[in-house]
Amino acid sequence: MIKVKKFVVNPLQENSYVISDETGQCIFVDPGFYFDVEKEEIKNYISENRLTPVMIANTHCHFDHIMGVEFLREEYSIPFYAHEEDAFWVEKSIEQAEMFGFEMKPVNPIDSFYADNKPLKFGDSEFKIIHVPGHSPGHVVFYAENSGELIAGDVLFYGSIGRTDLPGGDYNTLISGIKNKLFNLPDETKVYCGHGPETTLGFEKSSNPFLT
Ligand SMILES: [Zn+2]
User: Fold this and answer.
1) Total domains, the chain
2) Which site from 4, 55, 116, 170 is most exposed, i.e. has the minimal number of CB atoms within 10 Å?
3) Which residue intervals define the domain Metallo-beta-lactamase in the entry (predicted)?
4) 67-113 pLDDT per residue, tens
5) Contact call for residues 68 and 36 (beta carbons, < 8 A)
6) What CATH number is associated with residue 80?
């Protein structure tokens, strides 16, 4: 069984996740840890739960989702995985952060790109990686079929969807991606979002104003 732990971090109130299983291995998804107090909190969580981090796996590479990447790489000597089509966002992160009024340190390039049709694995757990562009060109979501959980990044929010006005974004691509690649999964699938509270696919299917 996977355990999903959420940390709400940085000035953009981004959701960073630590996903672990009974083996004690864990992965960081979209680590946005920015302030020192946030970095202390995550280090304590890892040590108190005796977890072994094995990788950083991002849904996409907007600056608020990668602010903690370099700190975790150094702390745990782990690789940073993301989709190739979001590599340019890593390079643009300082510039993009400045546009939002924040300073951030440079993030080194992605270590490994997701491979087509290859699942994301750690411990005894496995996620299907589904490419859902539109919010960013290399945006992926992670689907745990066994437990019915979806890590959706900024594709889908409670009652909303990700913005599509940033470089590489496209509204119609995002809408069709959600409808064709996510809404065919079971209604009871629990959705962990990149910002805000959790939801389910069934709830969004029936009530999300962008998708009904
Ligand atoms: Zn984003």
Assistant:
1) 1
2) 116
3) 13-195
4) 999 999 999 999 999 999 999 999 999 999 999 999 999 999 999 99
5) no
6) 3.60.15.10
Alpha-carbon distances of 92 from 68, 104, 137, rounded to whole Å: 15, 11, 14
In a domain, 212, yes or no: no
Share of residues in the chain with pLDDT > 70 (%): 100
Residue 107 CB burial class (10 angstroms; 0-12, 13-18, ≥19): buried
Question: How many CB atoms neighbour CB 40 within 10 A?
Answer: 11
Span from the CA of 50 to the centroid of ligand 1 (angstroms): 30
**Could you list the residue range(s) of the whole structural domain that residue 139 is in?**
3-207
Q: Quickly tell me which residue has 């000035």 as its tokens.
A: 11
How many angstroms separate the alpha carbon of residue 75 from the centre of ligand 1? 25
Average pLDDT over residues 115-119: 92
pLDDT of residue 116: 87
Does residue 84 lie within any of the structural domains? Answer: yes
Mean pLDDT of 126-136: 98
51 located within any domain: yes
Cβ atoms within 10 Å of 52's Cβ, excluding its own = 14
Rounded-to-integer distance, Cα 202 and Cα 189, Å: 8
**Angstrom distance (rounded) from CA 134 to CA 166:** 10
* Tokens encoding 25: 């291995």
